[in-house]
Amino acid sequence: MSPASDVQPAIDRATLRSGVASLECFVVPWDSEIFGFGVAEISRLDLPTGPDGSALFEAFDAWCAEREVRLVTCRLDHERLRDSMTLESNGFRFSEMVYTPRLEPIGEVSAPRIALDVAEADEGDIESIEDVARSAFTTGRYLLDHRLPSELNGRRYARWVRSAFESPTQQVIKAVHEGELVGFFCLEADQGDVYWHLTAVAPGWQGRGVGVSLWRTMLRRHAAEGARSVTTTISAHNLAVINLYVRLGFSFAAAQMTFHRLRESRE
Question: Would you tell me which of 13, 55, 59, 109 could form a disulfide with 219, CB atoms 3.0–4.6 Å apart?
Answer without folding.
Answer: 109
